[in-house]
Hints:
With 451 residues, the protein is α/β, with parallel strands linked by helices.
Amino acid sequence: MFEDLSSKFDKVFKFIKGKGKVSEATIDEFLREVRRIMLDADVNYKVVKQFVDDVKQKALEKNVIRSINPGKIVIDTITAELVRLMGEKKTDIKFSNDVPSVIMMVGLQGSGKTTFSGKLAKYLKSRGKNPALAACDVYRPAAIDQLKTLGEQIDVAVYSDDSKDPVKIALAAVEFCKQNYKDTLIVDTAGRLAIDEEMMREVEQLKSKLNPAEILFVVDSMTGQDAVNTAKEFHDRLDFDGVILTKLDGDSRGGAALSIRAVVDKPVKFVGVGEKLDAIEPFYPDRMASRILGRGDIQSLVEKAATMLPEELDEKKIAKLEEKFKGNKFDFGDFLDQLQQIKKMGSLSSLMGMIPGVDRIMKGKEIDDKPLRQVEAVINSMTLKERTNPDIINGARRKRIAGGSGTSIQDVNRVIKQFYDMQKMIKTFKKGRGMNNMLRNMGLPPNFSLK
Length: 451
Ligand SMILES: Nc1nc2c(ncn2[C@@H]2O[C@H](COP(=O)(O)OP(=O)(O)OP(=O)(O)O)[C@@H](O)[C@H]2O)c(=O)[nH]1
Ligand SMILES: [Mg+2]
């Protein structure tokens, strides 16, 4: 995410860090560079001007010119101003006192409304809500089916009928929620190629009839300043409550993320970071600033792992795994369980991108998940007996497993070797020689840390 922006910030920060004392002219030179970086990232020019002026004023107030550590003052000021620019604090979804709370999605065609409706339903469901979806895009023939398919994947009811009237469908969906004890209704609406009067009238009508708790404007972050301009037009007509920035996993330069809040004065509430239904993250301005400045986002990574636990990994399973570790009984079945846990957290690329510095090294390159998938396929082709007792996997069995999993015998050999290596690692760990031994086994120096 934003690799280009982070590496440029990194460069210009190095310039100021190296300075002992600075004059106002040096600060100006530095800020001219910051300005250029932000314009290159397609941040709105008015926003950039205000930002740079604010940074200068605040740095001067902090006596940067007389300071012996001017670099730190300037960098801290920029960090704080970036956070402020994006809205300071995370803003939650609002719910109404009426049942159901209606959350309405609006935005241009292809911005990601339908996908985000599914993501939000899944997100709210895992947090104790009982949502339903309403299919109010009656224009695109496949739109209703698309939403129904998403609903099936997450086991959330989708209300649709063939009245061809979005307002009627939405009102009927509200009734459906009341009768079926659904507390939240997510309304997916139709998008058009550019803002047209008909679409605007339709969403205005939906707004007045539904009295939604939230209108969320969904926008493709890759469209940069166009995203910001569209946001403004939608905002003038609809006074929406929050912004959803989608496709931040792509090569979005950061312009939309950095300018939208300042231009429409409405918070970004979530971001979309992939096509899958769990590729949704609440928007934290401070964490986003950290990513933009190439410092990663360890907090989100940890939370991602932690929030999975109640839902997807039950206490019993953890206890069982611990037992197995202790008794040296860790087998291929457990190996497979572990792999599936990792996969549930998202793609390897998105996980690695949250580690400080990694984004810049990878420069947007995708990490190939194929080896993981291969390991999974190989284990899936083993019999239960083979999984618990890998020593019996002889040549003939290896051949069968390779055939069954669509891999080669070499692949199977590799997976089995990896498994034994992992067992060895667990043993070293158990013997109490601790973390450093484990790191050495992984080919890393002792006391290795990501910071
Ligand atoms: N990479 C990536 N793709 C996304 C994201 N969100 C949506 N998409 C993809 O963008 C395309 C359009 O998404 P939709 O959800 O159908 O968009 P929409 O706004 O409902 O489109 P219309 O109904 O035609 O107006 C699909 O191929 C999605 O898979 C995201 O966060 N990241
Ligand atoms: Mg749609």
